[in-house]
Amino acid sequence: MSQAVVFEAKKLLRREIKKRLSAMSAESRARESKLICEKLLSTEEYKSSSRISVYLSMPSEVNTDLILKDIFDSKRKCFIPRYVGSNMDMLRLNSFEEVSTLPITPWNIPQHADDDDREEALLTGGLDLIVVPGLGFTRDGHRLGRGKGYYDKYILKCIEMSHQKPYLIGLGFSCQINDSIPITDTDMTMDKVLFCQPDSST
């Protein structure tokens, strides 16, 4: 499949998943978010990680507040994304309460200011685990991002700089899980995808 064909297929699938997400009620998003985050907290990979990257969620994404709180309650190091131009880095977050003091991006996501000189994960020991957002996932780990390649590039940088790949866990609502997703050689595969079955508690 050519790059142009993959690009077009991804564009169509993004449009379809966004429709599914917009049809989800706030109650369903809250219920599934809680169940998915509880699944993550119970994984051995999470329990054994001390340096963890977590995204700060948009309303259309699995809410990660429960994960953030648990990281700080268990006295581990938390890193969150900062997007500047085409680059993303992972900067240290000192407390859950600090989130409410961060500047808001045009995407309505809190992140550290461009001139905030914070600890960057790759410069101080790397990451054990990255909790990865996505627009769509397959059960076996393929991921559809939003088209900017931020996470794919950052994960590659992790491998190049620390010579190991962090464990990658994708979080998705039931309506974001697909039988297949068009991918290219630069698309990183998740080690695990956590989601809810529709209309169930599993």
From TrEMBL:
Substrate binds at residues 56, 61. Keywords: ATP-binding, Magnesium, Metal-binding, Nucleotide-binding. Its cofactor is Mg(2+). One of its GO terms (cellular component) is mitochondrion. ATP binds at residues 10-14, 143-151. It catalyses: (6S)-5-formyl-5,6,7,8-tetrahydrofolate + ATP = (6R)-5,10-methenyltetrahydrofolate + ADP + phosphate. SUPFAM superfamilies: NagB/RpiA/CoA transferase-like. Pfam families: 5-FTHF_cyc-lig. Its EC number is 6.3.3.2. One of its GO terms (molecular function) is 5-formyltetrahydrofolate cyclo-ligase activity. Gene3D superfamilies: NagB/RpiA/CoA transferase-like. Belongs to the 5-formyltetrahydrofolate cyclo-ligase family. It comes from Actinia tenebrosa (Australian red waratah sea anemone). One of its GO terms (biological process) is folic acid-containing compound biosynthetic process. InterPro entries: FTHF_cligase, FTHF_cligase-like_sf, NagB/RpiA_transferase-like. This is 5-formyltetrahydrofolate cyclo-ligase.
